[in-house]
Amino acid sequence: MRIYDDAAFLSRFDESAQILEDWINRTTSEDHAQLNKLYSDMNKKVQKKSI
Questions:
Q1: CB 35 within 8 A of CB 22
Q2: Which of 4, 31, 33, 38 could bridge to 26 as Cys pair (CB 3.0-4.6 Å)?
């Protein structure tokens, strides 16, 4: 199990929460696709840092 920096974790949590809120408030599938890509890119960036 990895130990993450609290500040980095909270930053990622806040960013994820904002993306989710934006996703819920969007009405078109095109908007959803853009936010899904943003979330996927963010997760890939975090995975690279934790390796």
A1: yes
A2: 31
